[in-house]
Amino acid sequence: MSRKIAGGFELSKQSWAALHQNRQLVVFPVISMIGMLFVTILFFVPGAVLVGSAASTESNTLWVTALVVTFIYYFFAYTIVIFSNTALVGATMRLIQREPATVGDGLRIAFARFGKILVYAFISATIGVIAKGISQSGRSSDNVLVAILSAIVGGLLQGAWNLVVFFAIPVLVVENVGLIDTFERSWHLFKQTWDEGFVGSATIGGISCLAYLALFLISGAITAAGISLGLLPVLILGMALLVLGFTLISLLNGAVNGIFQASLYNFAANGDVGPFIDTAPAREAFKA
C-alpha cells in the first residue's frame, strides 16, 4: 500500500514537470475555459430567471422548464469539458508514446470521437441533473434531516459517477470502444489503481489549494492597501492579480490533471509508467 501511495505522489509531481516541458498542453484547458464562459453567460440570465420564478411559485410548468434549461446547460458544459479533456489526453498519450504532439493533433483526436463525446455528455448531463434534483428536493422540506439526507444522496450519486468514468476519456482516446465498454473498462482500471489515483489527485488538488490560498492572501493584502491608502491603481492591481492568478492556477491544474490521468491510465493498462516518470523512486514505487 505504501508503495502504491508513493507512486501516486511521485506521478503527480512528474505530471507538473511534464507540463513544464510541454506547455502547449495548457491550450486545451484554455479552450475549455473560454467555452464554459460563453455557455455560462448565454444560460445565466434565462436560467436565473426561471429558477427564481420556480422557487417563488408552485407551478409545475416552471419547474419542468427550469429543469430542461438546466439539462441543456449541463449538456453543453459537459460537451465542452469532455471534448477539451479528450484533446488534452489525446495529445498527452502521443507524448507518452514518444511521438510529437501539437494542439492540432489533440483536436483531431477529439473530433474523431465527437459522436461518442456527445453521447457521453448526454449521459453525464442526465446524471448531473438527477443528482442536482435530489440535492435540491430536500431544501423545500421543513425537515432538516430530509434536507441533509437529500444533499448527501445527490452528492454520492454524482461522486459515484465521477469514479466510474475516472479513466473514461483515456479509454475513449486509446481503445476507442463503445461507451458501455468504455465505462466498464474505466471502472475496472480505477479499481486497480484507486490508491495511486486518490493520492495523486489529492496531491495535485492540494498544491492548487495552497496556490489559491497564497494568491488570495497576496491579492487581498494589495487590495486592502489600495483601499486604506485611497490609491485606485493599487486597488486595481490587487483585483487584477486575483483574477489573472485564479485563471492561471485553474488552467495549470486542468492541464496537470490531464497528464496525470493519461500517465496513470498507461500504467494501469500497459504496466508502463511512460517517459514522464523519469525518477528512480517513482519507477520503484510503480513496480508490481
Q: What count of helical segments does DSSP give?
A: 10
How many strands, what sense, and barrel or not for the largest sheet? none
DSSP strand tally: 0
Give the N-terminus to C-terminus distance in angstroms: 11 Å
Estimate the mean pLDDT confidence: 80
Low-confidence stretches: none
- Globally, the shape reads globular
Strand content: under 5%
Q: Provide the succession of SSEs.
A: HHHHHHHHHH
Helix content: over 70%
- Structural category is mainly alpha
The number of domains: 1
Output the radius of gyration: 21 Å
Detailed description of the structure:
With 288 residues, the chain is mainly alpha-helical. It has one domain. Helix content is 85%, strand content 0%. The protein contains ten helices and no strands. The protein has helices at residues 2-21, 27-55, 60-96, 103-112, 114-137, 144-164, 168-174, 179-229, 232-270, 280-285. The mean pLDDT is 80.
